[in-house]
Design a protein that fits this description.
The protein has 25 helices and 2 strands. It has 487 residues and is mainly α. The longest helix is centred in the first third of the chain and has 29 residues.
């Protein structure tokens, strides 16, 4: 497998055009800022934040897809007469679709731009939710879930890359963490609305994020680094100017990006064999390792089937507890968004994975004792509370680092000339692992709750070791500095 990297600037703009060419308004504004520039557009940080908030609708859709199956399991299974295995297939099909989307995501984002790929992702998401809403049997249900997954697979790669490429160096970690914060908001909304609405109405509500995202894409600039790579220098400088503010001198950043693009343009073709070079395999190893370990710790299994887990833990109001879990996840991820550019990526990852390890083993112990003591004893009630506390601590620990930071690091460390290939590979690995976890979680929990959480705990312990030995600190460094450090 290979892809073209045109060797010079000449003709690049003719070969690859943005799918959504909405540059005219910001080119005009950058030239006439003294007359037409509003305070919002003149303030670079506000302009970047607005762009991030618009594309964050994609991860909200992502989260809503993840959270949908938990509050709807009993109702869908009853209405459509699904077995546990069939509902497990339904839950995991979004991961199958996401794997297909992940394979295509890098090339789509490379050839038609970051905004164009988000447009392509939004359409199957909307169709998928409508298919689920009107399903009369499992076939429409499964088809809708696959379509949702395809869109989510593209979103999961494109949004963190777009945010990393538009964010200023001192805000990149915090803005990049908005991606995962939005995912948790989507999950929480699915849990909350699932308490009050039927599964069909909830599916219709699921169309809203992408329905709003589509018109929003017409009002934000394309990634300046992608425009520079395509040789569209006028659009590149205009996009960067509106993102940094019209009163900001962008000449240093422009020259730095141009040098990085010129360096990456020397090779015309990148193949899998080139990934053997350290400048490529090391960042790819770190990116894939973090994204795989993120899923192997069992988070999708916990979130997809949290209501069932709470029922097993003898919690009476399991759906309400599930919503509380989602709300806690949002708060914890919000704290990470604030801390990531202050404390650094590595420290938060180590704290996060250490907390997950302890929490998962606590839950495993609680589930073990619940199996061997009588339901009428005080100890049984204590173990139910302990398992609830452990699950909450696990979600907080996950949200504190492992949830958000692997996507931030993946978007930061991959060299620009292999980003589409390597990014697709890393995203595919993440979704493949997520599919395995989602497909097996329900069956594993039926087998043994204690055994399931012990397995997840061992993976979390290994994550501590992996981060300590392999993951570099990227705080306070430009994308070009990070990527050149692997040479």
């Amino acid at each position: 497998m290979s892809f073209r990297e045109e060797g010079g600037d000449n003709g690049r703009g003719d070969l690859k055009k943005p799918f959504l060419h909405t540059g005219s308004w910001y080119r005009m504004s950058s030239r006439q800022s003294s007359v037409m520039g509003s305070q919002i557009l003149r303030d670079g940080s506000i302009s970047v934040v607005l762009c991030v908030l618009i594309v964050a609708l994609g991860p909200i859709q992502f989260g809503f897809t993840c959270g949908y199956s938990s509050p709807t399991q009993s109702e869908i299974s009853h209405d459509l007469k699904l077995t546990i295995s069939e509902f497990s297939i339904f839950g995991s099909l979004s991961n199958v679709g996401a794997m297909v989307g992940a394979i295509a995501s890098g090339q789509i984002a490379e050839y038609i731009g970051r905004k164009g790929s988000l447009m392509i992702a939004a359409i199957p998401n909307i169709i998928g939710w409508l298919a689920i809403s009107f399903a009369r049997d499992s076939s429409f249900l499964f088809m809708g879930r696959l379509l949702e997954g395809f869109g989510v697979g593209i979103i999961s790669y494109t949004v963190p890359v777009y945010i990393a490429e538009i964010a200023p160096q001192n805000m990149r970690g915090s803005l990049g963490s908005v991606n995962q914060l939005s995912v948790t908001i989507g999950i929480m909304l699915a849990y909350l609305l699932g308490l009050f609405t039927s599964w069909r109405v909830l599916a219709v509500i699921g169309t809203l994020p992408c329905t709003i995202l589509i018109p929003g894409l017409f009002f934000i600039p394309e990634s300046p680094r992608w425009l520079a790579k395509m040789g569209m220098m006028e659009d590149f400088e205009a996009s960067l100017q509106v993102l940094r503010g019209f009163d900001t001198d962008i000449s240093v950043e422009v020259n730095e990006i141009k040098r990085a693009v010129a360096s990456s343009s020397k090779r015309t073709t990148i193949r899998f064999s080139d990934l053997k070079r350290k400048r490529y395999w090391y960042p790819l190893l770190v990116g894939i390792g973090l994204l795989v370990l993120q899923q192997l710790s069992g988070i999708n299994g916990v979130l997809f089937y949290s209501s069932k887990i709470f029922e097993s833990a003898a919690v009476s109001s399991s759906n309400v507890a599930t919503f509380g879990l989602g709300a806690i996840q949002v708060v914890a991820t919000g704290v990470t968004t604030w801390l990531v550019d202050k404390a650094g990526r590595r420290l938060l990852l180590i704290i996060s994975s250490s907390g997950m390890t302890v929490s998962l083993f606590v839950v495993a112990v609680a589930f073990y004792f619940e199996r061997i003591v009588s339901e009428n004893t005080r100890l049984y009630g204590i173990m139910g509370i302990l398992s609830l506390v452990g699950l909450v601590a696990y979600v907080i620990s996950f949200s504190f680092g492992i949830g958000a930071i692997p996507w931030v690091i993946m978007s930061e460390i991959l060299p620009v000339n292999i980003k589409s290939l390597a990014g697709s590979t890393a995203t595919l690995a993440n979704w493949l692992t997520a599919w395995v976890i989602t497909m097996t979680a329900n069956l594993l929990l039926t087998w043994s709750g204690a055994g399931t959480f012990t397995i997840y705990g061992i993976v979390a312990a290994f994550t501590v070791v992996f981060v300590s030995l392999w993951v570099p600190e990227t705080k306070g460094r430009s994308l070009e500095e990070i990527q050149s450090s692997f040479r």
